[in-house]
Design goal:
single chain; VLIG-type G domain-containing protein; alpha/beta; 6 helices; G_VLIG_dom; 207 residues; seven-stranded mixed β-sheet; GTP binding; P-loop_NTPase
C-alpha cells in the first residue's frame, strides 16, 4: 500500500507540473501576441542613405560602427528581440510595396492582425515591422511559423529621391520571402513598371 500511495502521489505531482507548465506556455503566448500588436519602425531613408534604428529610435551618436557586423550588433527591436531570441520554429518574412496611398498598410493589418497606421496620404515612414504567430495543423512543433511583416514606405513619393526608393527596394529584396504588390486592378501601369524597375536595380546591386 505504501508503494501504491507513493506512485499515486508521483502521478498527481507530474500532472500538476504539466498543467502548470501548460499555463506558463499559454500565458507566454498571450503576452507574445499582445506585444506583436504594436509595430516598430526599424529603418528610414534620408539624404539618399538608409538609416537603421535602435528600438525604433535613432542610434545614439556615441555608438560607433564602421562595418556591417558592428552595425548589426547595435540594432535592437525592443520587445520583439525577446520573441526572436526565444523562438525555436521557422520564420517567414512577408513585405508589402507599391506606390504611396495604395492600401499597403491596410492589407498587412488584415493579414497580421496588427495596428499599422492607416490614414489618407503618406502614413508609413521608412520600414515598419510587426510579427504574428501562424499555426498549421495542430500548431505544434514544425507546424508553427513566426511571420514577420514589413510595411515599406510607398514608392514614387515626392518626399523621396529615386536613390532612396532604390534603397528601400534593396532592403525589401534582401530580407523578404514574399513581397505583396497591392493592386486594385490587373493591368500594368507606369507606376507598377517603375516599382519593378527599382526592384531590378536592387537585385543588380546584390549580385
Amino acid at each position: 500500500m505504501k508503494i501504491e500511495f507513493q506512485v499515486e502521489n508521483a502521478e498527481n505531482y507530474l500532472i500538476s507540473v504539466a498543467a502548470e507548465e501548460d499555463t506558463h506556455v499559454k500565458m507566454g503566448m498571450w503576452v507574445c501576441k499582445l506585444v506583436c500588436l504594436t509595430p516598430i519602425q526599424i529603418a528610414h531613408v534620408e539624404n539618399n542613405a538608409m538609416v537603421a534604428l535602435k528600438d525604433g529610435l535613432q542610434i545614439p551618436h556615441y555608438i560607433s560602427y564602421v562595418e556591417s557586423v558592428s552595425l548589426s550588433n547595435s540594432i535592437c527591436f525592443g520587445f520583439y528581440d525577446v520573441v526572436f531570441s526565444n523562438w525555436k520554429g521557422k520564420i517567414k518574412v512577408i513585405s508589402s510595396m507599391e506606390k504611396q496611398s495604395s492600401g499597403k498598410s491596410y492589407l498587412l493589418n488584415h493579414l497580421s492582425g496588427s495596428l499599422l497606421d492607416v490614414i489618407g496620404g503618406r502614413c508609413t515612414d521608412g520600414v515598419w515591422m510587426t510579427i504574428t504567430i501562424g499555426e498549421d495543423g495542430d500548431g505544434q512543433g514544425d507546424n508553427r511559423y513566426l511571420y514577420v511583416f514589413l510595411d515599406f514606405d510607398g514608392l514614387d513619393s515626392f518626399e523621396r529621391s529615386e536613390q532612396e526608393d532604390m534603397l528601400l527596394s534593396v532592403l525589401n529584396v534582401a530580407v523578404s520571402n514574399l513581397t505583396i504588390f497591392n493592386k486594385k486592378d490587373f493591368h500594368l501601369d507606369k507606376d507598377t513598371e517603375s516599382a519593378f524597375s527599382r526592384f531590378q536595380s536592387g537585385i543588380n546591386l546584390l549580385k
